[in-house]
Design a protein that fits this description.
By secondary structure, this protein is an all-beta fold. The chain is about 0% helix and about 60% strand. It has a 34-stranded parallel sheet that branches.
């Protein structure tokens, strides 16, 4: 390791000042850049660089002590050939214009009740081979509240099979602010996968792999505001499936939202308590001549739409509601299929 505070109940306080570099290269084992262990310990730095390479595994920064805190200032960078940052035990981390670059492991892991990370504005997470951000308030003392992740103008760019942009588990709250962007490139690599509570405005999600959905909500509520754009080259755009799963996708007349799907559907609600609510949204489906559905409700799912425009290429269907499902459309509705013989 490069820097470590000892374990136990005695806090260790480390101030690295400005422009410090921590390099750790373990050719035979497990490399850790910075480890903060003692209860109530703290780490302070500005324009910090951590570069870690481990033969078997690596972590850039690990906040493992109870109620520890890290303030990484502005312009810090974490590089690792495995996990970027792991934080848990109701600890907190703050930074802005922050960069994580890693391969094989998860870029940022937020574990346990009460743990929180705020990456301010203009941060970037680039991961090759795994998920960009994982958050789950699944362990610890539930009196400490949900795990939290906050950022605005955040960029997440991930590569790899099943490498999700953000994986949000139960008891988690995520606020992506305004102008955040999620890009994935890998089969089954969903942009946003959630069982928690998520909010964002002017969000861009672009996924390109086979069976990769733009936004998939399995529980909780995801609310995405105006000027948001979801694109899935080979999967669905928006989908809810599971217990009490809701997506609110709300554009405005001046800043409409959009969905593009080159896969099975633009927006879909797939279980009895699954709901997709949309306003002022343009939906385009184009599966290169194969069957694709603009709106698809099944197994009791419910879709509502206000001022929607649906455009379907050859082979597409505009709206498809299956047994016991419901689609409610109000205000102006435009359905534009490629030829007159296409089914709206």
């Amino acid at each position: 390791y490069g820097v470590m505070t000892p374990a136990g109940n005695t806090p260790g306080n480390i101030n690295l000042g400005n422009d410090v570099t921590v390099n750790v290269n373990d050719a035979s084992g497990y490399a850790k850049g910075i480890i903060i262990q003692g209860k109530n310990s703290s780490l302070t730095a500005n324009r910090l660089t951590v570069d870690v390479v481990g033969q078997t595994s690596a972590i850039g920064i690990n906040l493992i002590g109870d109620y520890t805190h890290a303030d990484l200032g502005t312009g810090s960078t974490i590089k690792s050939n495995d996990d970027g940052i792991i934080i848990g035990h109701s600890s907190t981390l703050t930074a802005t214009q922050f960069t994580i670059e890693n391969s094989n492991g998860i870029g940022l892991t937020i574990n346990d009740y009460g743990t929180s990370v705020d990456l301010g504005s203009g941060s970037k997470i680039t991961t090759d081979g795994s998920t960009g951000v994982y958050i789950g308030g699944l362990n610890g003392n539930n009196a400490n509240g949900a795990a939290r992740f906050t950022a605005t103008d955040l960029t997440i760019d991930v590569q790899g099979y099943s490498a999700m942009g953000i994986n949000v588990q139960k008891n988690s709250v995520v606020d992506l602010g305004t102008n955040s962007s999620i890009k994935t490139n890998g089969d089954n690599a969903h942009g946003l996968w959630s069982f928690g509570q998520v909010s964002a405005n002017a969000l861009t999600v672009d996924v390109t792999g086979a069976a990769a959905n733009g936004v998939e909500v399995r529980g909780g509520t995801t609310t995405i505001g105006a000027d948001s754009h979801i694109s899935s080259a080979q999967g669905g755009g928006l989908v809810t499936s599971g217990s009490d799963a809701t997506i609110n996708f709300s554009g405005t007349a001046a800043q409409r939202n959009s969905i593009f799907s080159g896969g099975s559907y633009g927006a879909s609600a797939q279980t009895a308590t699954a709901v997709v609510n949309m306003q002022n949204t343009d939906i385009t489906v184009d599966r290169n001549g194969s069957l694709a559905l603009g709106l698809w409700a099944l197994s009791g799912g419910r879709i509502t739409g206000d001022s929607l425009a649906i455009t379907g290429a050859a082979g597409a269907r505009g709206i498809y509601a299956m047994t016991n499902s419901q689609i409610d459309l109000t205000s102006d509705l435009v359905i534009d299929m490629s030829t007159p013989d296409q089914m709206a």
